[in-house]
Amino acid sequence: MAEAERPYLATFAPWLASLGEDARELARCLDNPAVPAPVRILVAGGLSYLLKSLDLVPDGAQDIGLLDDAFVLRIAASLATFTPGAWADAEFGALIRRLAADAEAVRAFLGPVYPRLVEYTRALAKSMARGRPIADLVVNDEARRGFVADIDAWASVYEAPSPPQDPMALLKLRSFLETRLASSPGA
């Protein structure tokens, strides 16, 4: 069964390499008034997931510990594509299209777990970031600046881990997500 996962190793490796820059580019949209507020909230939720998970990478799982973050950012981008005006800013629109297109590989990889991760990602818009509701990052300049600075600081020092070489690592990731999402509200 693990051999069925082998093609995803090559698909997901570049996502780990670009995670820091993807996060930095997404964070830039939070300051862009041309990007609709609902899109900025979805993006902030995905970025908040990334910041919260950085300290939670379990020992021995560094090769898969950031892939779920890459998945969540792509799903947030995919959700954003359904928001009217999501393409108002051409540069941001190109970024959203690129990341949203990748969400199809996440769907294929996760199979029946994918809809639960989509709902989880959607619910992140109602979560907290830096002790404030995610929506505050759209309306509160100070909170937004601090949040964007945190993302930028992390992205500046981010070094992509070696991508997983063993398809079993991807089975572990799917199992991790299945377990985590089974206990998540709304799952």
Q: Compute the average pLDDT.
A: 87
Rg computed from alpha carbons, rounded to a whole number of angstroms: 16 Å
Poorly predicted ranges (pLDDT <50, ≥5 residues)? none
Element order: H for helix, E for strand: HHHHHEEHHH
- Helices and strands: which structural class? mainly alpha
What topology, given as strand order, has the largest sheet? Answer: 1-2
Q: What percentage of amino acids are in beta strands?
A: under 5%
Morphology call:
globular
Terminal CA distance reads 26 Å
* Tally of alpha and pi helices: 8
Beta-strand segment tally: 2
Fraction of helical residues: 55-70%
Major sheet attributes: 2 strands, antiparallel
Molecular structure report:
There is one protein chain. The chain is mostly helical. It has helices at 6-28, 37-53, 67-80, 90-110, 114-123, 136-139, 141-157, 167-182; strands at 128-129, 132-133. Strands 1-2 form a two-stranded antiparallel ribbon. A hairpin with a 2-residue loop joins β1 and β2 (132-133). It is globular, with a radius of gyration of 16 Å.
